[in-house]
Write a structure and sequence with these properties.
Blueprint (H helix, E strand, L loop, with lengths): L6 H13 L11 E5 L3 H12 L20 H16 L3 E4 L15 E4 L16 E7 L2 H9 L6 E4 L4 H10 L4 E4 L24 H7 L23
Parallel strand pairs: 1-4, 3-4, 5-6
Antiparallel strand pairs: 2-3
Helix pairs in contact: 1-2
Length: about 230
């Protein structure tokens, strides 16, 4: 999120990206990089909205976020959040199971990380946990974003169209959203790079992945083929 981003849009996209489906999505936006000039305002707005998320029975109309899928998943998230705190991470929202609720429920969590080397920054939790860092320059955030074994999806928020194109091309991810999030279509390729795999679903690329092209040349003329060594 750059300093010229539309903060309201960026906050809403970030919330949808990590807390939608309780973070249980392959394209969940689990790492957030904020330009230092907007970080405080951004986090104030995001934490306020995060604390308002209604957790409960996924079949209830008022519910906005449901439970995790497995006990092992819950225990892993609890373990990694605790480890992040030990490494210097600060919990800005969540960080535990909701009061009075057991089961597999876990609060939407935001952790501000002072350094890139915190283990949680590059750990795919498949849960509602967001790791946040601050940056100063475009080059710095590009290096931070690419310092990952994962490379499925990324989002860029800026009003500078030239910068959005530079970043979209330079970020090592198979999918990049600019000023939006989670737009998918059966006519657009879906897939990642690095540890996020190879090949593509959807789009023409997927068709190519499941076909073996054959090249056939056909002469449709009745004229005999001329002698190739006779100059014409």
């Amino acid at each position: 999120m750059f300093d010229d981003a539309n903060i309201e849009s960026a906050v809403n996209a970030s919330i949808a990206g990590i807390f939608g489906a309780t973070g249980q999505s392959c394209v969940a936006g689990s790492r957030l990089y904020l330009h230092e000039d907007i970080a405080d305002e951004f986090l104030e707005k995001m934490t306020a909205l995060t604390r308002q998320i209604v957790i409960g029975d996924p079949l209830a109309e008022e519910t906005q976020m449901g439970p995790l899928c497995t006990q092992g998943q819950l225990e892993n998230i609890q373990r990694e959040v605790a480890h992040a705190q030990e490494q210097g991470g600060t919990i800005l929202a969540g960080g535990k199971q909701p009061d009075g609720m057991g089961g597999l429920f876990y609060e939407p969590t935001i952790i501000e990380c002072p350094r890139q080397d915190l283990r949680i920054v590059d750990t795919e939790l498949f849960g509602p946990v967001l790791s946040v860092q601050r940056f100063k320059t475009e080059q710095e955030v590009l290096e931070l974003a690419n310092d990952s074994e994962h490379g499925l999806a990324a989002g860029i928020f800026t009003k500078d169209s030239a910068r959005s194109m530079r970043m979209a091309g330079a970020v090592q991810a198979g999918i990049v959203w600019v000023n939006t999030y989670r737009v998918v279509s059966p006519i657009a390729e879906f897939g990642g790079v690095k540890g996020s795999g190879f090949g593509r679903e959807s789009g023409f690329q997927a068709i190519y992945d499941y076909t073996r092209p054959k090249t056939i040349w056909v002469n449709t003329s009745d004229e005999p083929i001329s002698n190739p060594f006779v100059m014409r």
